[in-house]
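The records we work with from here on pair a chain with its fold. Taken together, the tokens spell out the fold as the letters spell out the chain. The record below shows the convention in full.
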Amino acid sequence: MNTVEDRPSDFNLGDRDFQFLASFLSRETGIILSDHKRQMVSGRLVKRLRALGLRDFGDYCAMLDGPRARDEIEHLVNAITTNITNFFREPHHFDHLRHMVLEPRMTEAPRRRKLRIWSAGCSSGQEPYSIAMTIADTLKPAEAWDALILATDIDTNVLKRGAEGIYTAEDTAHIPETYRKRFVRRLHNDPDHMQMADEVKRLIRFKRLNLHEPWPMKGPFDAIFCRNVAIYFDKPTQRALFNRYCDMLTMGGMLYLGHAESLIGMNDRFEVSDKTVYRRIR
């Protein structure tokens, strides 16, 4: 009898298997895979098929349709998701955060100095570290504040990188020079890589979270960053997601979206505060 190793491999992703994978991901994560992404999906999953000793995508789909599915979902999502991010990407958001969220809090009585911000879809951590640097530079004295950033993503690989806080010198070039001098440390044993300072690392908690599932945290948050995430969902899923975000925000709290995303016509519980920034009003 031939073993898996003896049989010829066929890594062609046909219609039936692609539709199964698209339905599976939509059901489990809310991510929508349009047909033009078939080649990307095929290319990224070939390594998983080889690692599992599977002959073809039919075998892989059969596994996802069985009791081993729970163990494979994390690997599947890690392979499929795209993580493109930079420090201080869309810099107007961080100016808005400073002037419209952080600075107004400076006059509050000490007993109210609690700040909670959520970076949803944080990728490898550049966004939450950009938020943390903005907080550390604005809220003074820092020790007078109970400030915390929740950084979540569905991809465990990028979360690990974010928690380590180590980036290439090219990555950190996007950080403003004054922040770079204060919050970035060169590694002694690796001059090509930098590490984020403890001052900002201690403000962030990295956690895995599937936005399509129940959320364990209760909030409320003063601001939520969810940039370039909703574009992977269909309109009904987007509407439900934005409504859940609204429930998690304080009244007047801010929701920051990506440059290609909008709440206009999607949710009447927000008003426009700035370019792709929305304030909860009800």
